Give the backbone structure.
Amino acid sequence: MGGRVVRNIDRAAASVIDGLGHAGVATVHEAQGRIGLLASRMRPIYPNARIAGSAVTISAPPGDNWMVHVAIEQLQQGDILVLAPTSPCEDGYFGDLLATSAMARGCRGLVIDAGVRDVRDLTRMNFPVWSKAVFAQGTVKATLGSVNVPIVCAGAAIDPGDVIVADDDGVCVVKRAEAAAVLEKAQAREAAEESKRRRLAAGELGLDIYDMRGKLEAMGLRYE
């Protein structure tokens, strides 16, 4: 049932959030055991955007963006709006006017399992959005939803205050309570990858770095 707005939510430390954003979606996803990805349909409206922030969640009726206005009031610096419709919808819930309002509150971007419009203006404003559709169809303001409640967005369970990481590879969610531990693992993974990158650039093969030859031979691979 809609009609709830939770005003006070816990957020991860800013340094942890920014660290996860620097690591990026692929590294964070791997670091936390290959979990947390939103569905592949969630694509950025323009390339090269990379953000991380605390989720301000929105459960919205299909074709109704009333709760986006309500959610913007709850934003704090560094937050990300995350919207899941209560039934499948591709209508354009969000455009340049809402982005202007959200940016004034310190919002870093939007993740929406529905549609967005005014893409040219959003790109010019450098307001990043990950959505499943770009669609000019408008919405109404007639039915209550909820803000800062648990949602399922593009197949991923997201609680208010969870850390959202988004870039060209998609969107990943990290549970707030686990964010610091995931960051530590992500940074360790980055360090290991940098070492391997140097070895690969020097001409070593992945076959040797990852010690694959013995297993390939045992499985029957033969060179002729």
The chain has a mean pLDDT of 97. The radius of gyration is 20 Å. Strands lie at 43-44, 51-60, 79-85, 109-116, 129-134, 146-147, 151-153, 156-158, 163-167, 170-174. DSSP finds eight helices and ten strands in the chain.
